[in-house]
Amino acid sequence: MRADRVFAYGAAAGLVGDLLLGDPRRGHPVAAFGRAAGAVERVLWRDHRAWGALHAVVCAGGAVVTGALAQRVVRSSAAASVALTGVATWAVVGGTSLAREARVIGRALEAGDVEGARERLPHLCGRDPQALDADGIARAVVESVAENTSDAVVGALVWGALGGVPGLLGFRAVNTLDAMVGHKSARYRRYGWASARLDDVAGWPGARLTAVLATAAGGDPRGAVRAWREDAGKHPSPNAGPVEASFAGALGVRLGGTLSYAGRVEHRPVLNTRGRAVATHDIERAVRLSRRVGLLALGVGVAARALGKGRTS
Fold first, then answer.
1. Between helices 29-44 and 155-181, what is the axis angle to 10°?
2. Phi then psi dihedrals of residue 271, to 5 deg
3. Which pLDDT score, from 0 to 100, does residue 268 have?
4. What is the pLDDT of residue 179?
5. Residue 255 pairs with which residues in a beta bridge?
6. If we measure between CA atoms, which residue out of 232, 221, 229 comes closest to residue 292?
7. What is the pLDDT of residue 261?
8. Are 1 and 288 in contact (CB under 8 A)?
């Protein structure tokens, strides 16, 4: 079976698996990778960029090599190749868990249970929930849905289309390393520098595709384009900026502003200044937009893989 068809069938099966099963409560492959990366960190950690770069190479490179070896083992069997791609896709995407967590918080806010929403918010993002009121929680959820649509769905599909199973596993490894060590704490300011920069590079194509698809699938394409053009560059993240700005414009809401992480306050520029404040019902709208973007990304990935195969055959 041609490689483009293997990816098409496998990635589609993986997304269906994610839709039906979501993430397992125990034994998730990404959690296993996180434990392995933590063990490597305990051996390698030094307050130096070079040691952090070695950590990134060992962990991300190990994931890529594992994927390549697994793909090589099953390459003689079309069914096994499709199954491996499906399992890898299911393991690395997280659209269903993202939607589930967002909706749980949305239902709590709709019921007036702000404290319950605060307790649940850390399952979705790293904001300080005690610093947020109901509207602030809703805005944090919409921003997290937007950013994680790129990180947990579209980016993985992009790299799966480009590199098959090694691409899927490598992208998730890089994204996980960034979440573990890529933040600017005293411990990781230098050690996590390489992981953060690698994540910026790996996330670049998926973020731009997410922004394009959110513009196409949202309710206000002109507003999405305008917000992306005017405000994306103001965001401190080169990849979250286009994604959050396009979502903001597509949904007609304002994102950004004052944020609080573990007592550290950040004042970020507002994205889509012409939009209205985020309301609780916008959480469901963001989730539905995220779903549409994920399905469109699968279509784009399959088409791109088929086109690339056609040009080389």
1. 40
2. -100, 130
3. 84
4. 93
5. 271
6. 221
7. 67
8. no
- Residue 313 identity: S
Tokens encoding 4 = 């483009």
Q: Specify the pTM.
A: 0.94
Between CA 313 and CA 88 the distance in angstroms is 26
- How confident is the model at residue 127, as a pLDDT? 82
Closest CA to 170 of 257, 19, 162, 308: 162
| Per-residue tokens: 119 | 């307790």
Task: From residue 60, give the alpha-carbon distance in Å to each of 89, 202, 208, 212, 254.
Answer: 17, 11, 22, 28, 35
Q: What's the token pair of residue 167?
A: 């691409």
pLDDT in tens, 30-40: 999 999 999 99
For residue range 248-298, list pLDDT tens digits in order. Answer: 999 999 999 877 766 667 778 999 999 999 999 999 999 999 999 999 999
Say which DSSP state 235 is in: S
Query: At which residue do the structure tokens 């918080």 appear?
Result: 105
The helix/strand/coil state of 229 is helix
